[in-house]
Amino acid sequence: MERGLNDKVALVTGGGSGIGRATALRLASEGARVFIIGRHADTLDAVVAEVAAAGGEASCLPVDLAATDCGEKAVDATVAWSGRLDILVNAAGTFPYTPVHELSDKDWDEALAINLSGVMRTCRAAARAMGEKGGAIVNISSTNAVMGDKVSCCSAYSAAKAGQLGLTRQFAAELGPAIRVNAVLPGPIDTPMLEGWLDDPQERSEWMARYIPLERLGRPEEIASVVAMLVSDDGGYVTGVAIPVDGGMTLV
Questions:
Q1: Quick check: 24 pLDDT over 80?
Q2: What CATH number is given to the structural domain containing 111?
Q3: Which domain range does residue 185 map to?
Q4: Is 207 inside any structural domain?
Q5: Residue 152 confidence (pLDDT)
Q6: How confident is the model at residue 196 (pLDDT cuts 50, 70, 90)?
Q7: What is the model's pTM?
Q8: Is 163 part of a structural domain of the chain?
Q9: What is the tally of structural domains in the chain?
Q10: pLDDT by residue (tens digit) across 106-137?
Q11: Is residue 121 part of a domain?
Q12: DSSP the chain
């Protein structure tokens, strides 16, 4: 389905792998010019090459996503490359698997710096760049923002992702009508972030059968398709919402 993103410029954080990569490729396939940031230059370059091979246009910049200037740097680089910014997708994230009684201040601070403070700073910079001409922002939160998770022991991640929902609602209220702001709540998605989580195939299969009505992991492309809807005119009357894309996990 064509989403009408021709001539739009999108910034995708965490665009080198997982959901960010899938989102960058999907938006580019819909006609958007895509700028991606992340920590690793090699993975970013690979995605830029994929976009180019498919006939699209992309560029990238390695950025320390925990740095206090990451938002301004990413948005400034996007506008310098393209002359404008229409779409922001915050897909960068870190997921420390640490029981609460073993959680270090370092792990806590890093999780909040990337998953919450970085999102705020990038949204703030994007809102300034979009201005009255408007645009669309999507924050990739998580089902962990709205439910506990005994298996993965991810209190820092859950707290940060819940904070993203508060930012999403408040930014939607403040930035409308020019800028729409929404969140997507992925369930377990088959990405490198799941390494170390239920590694035993049988254990993972039993867990999915018990907790996910669709009984499988999600694919990054399934998150990207919802993002594409939200940033397009098809989502033109949607703002301030959090959409679970989780195989029904939050239902059970």
A1: yes
A2: 3.40.50.720
A3: 9-243
A4: yes
A5: 65
A6: low
A7: 0.94
A8: yes
A9: 1
A10: 988 999 999 999 999 999 999 999 999 999 99
A11: yes
A12: -----TT-EEEEETTTSHHHHHHHHHHHHTT-EEEEEES-HHHHHHHHHHHHHTT--EEEEE--TTSTTHHHHHHHHHHHHHS---EEEE-------B-GGG--HHHHHHHHIIIIIHHHHHHHHHHHHHGGG-EEEEEE--GGGTS--TTT-BHHHHHHHHHHHHHHHHHHHHHTTTEEEEEEEE-SBSSGGGTTSS-SHHHHHHHHHHH-TT-S-B-HHHHHHHHHHHHSGGGTT--S-EEEESTTGGG-
Return the closest-CA partner of residue 180 out of 109, 239, 115, 118: 239
Provide the token pair at 62: 């390695």
pLDDT in tens, 44-69: 999 999 999 999 999 999 999 899 99
The answer as to whether 183 is a domain residue is: yes
Active site residues: 157
